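Many introductory courses stop at the sequence. We go one step further.
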Amino acid sequence: MSMFNKAFRIAVLCAIALATVACASPGGTRTPSSRVATDGGDLRLVDVLPPPAGSEGGREQLLMPGDVLKVEVFQADQLSRTAQIDSTGLISLPLIGTLTAAGKTQRDLEREIRSLYGARYLQNPDVTVFIEESAGQRVTVDGEVTKAGLYEVSPGTTLLDALALAGGFRELADKRKVYIYRSVGPEKLVANYDVGSIRDGRAANPRIYGGDVVVVFTSSNRVAMNSLKDALELSARVAGGLVAPF
């Protein structure tokens, strides 16, 4: 058993032991506890995931986890920094600490950094944000799959395609407990998909976008919001801070 799968199972089992509210499968009744706090903001459970903001219509590209940014502060080299957006959408900068970068445009992030430095540290700071490396169309597939990891996807890739890239399900996987995590603007959303229903034609095969995270739980898991959060955070650590572009 891989280090990831051992760690993943332990983390999920611990979270489940502490969780008190379970999430119903699609078509069932949801409990009121469909939101949980993470380091990067609230994670909210939804029935169907909308497309990421800016994914269509030719709007300016939004930053995503995995992007490597170069933040330059003119005439303040000690504040300039190269930073990678982590799995929760955050970057860390000198003096101002962590702030959310994912889901924003370069110009939005420049304005926010300029405002934060200008409020306490600099007078009329000149801030420029460059994308040194773009995460592009990469997704993370974790949990009870044969080959957990980061995968390149193309426009039109579906959930079934992503699972196939990861080698399909392991023996203990529950096809009814497949969760997709997605950043939509400032929101962090997660939805449950029943792969058996998708294969039978009883449910739509959802499209996967760059930055999505797919996690497959075991048949013994009683999935609760806390376990969803912990599974996402474990995926980030195992992937070296990149739960693929989230």
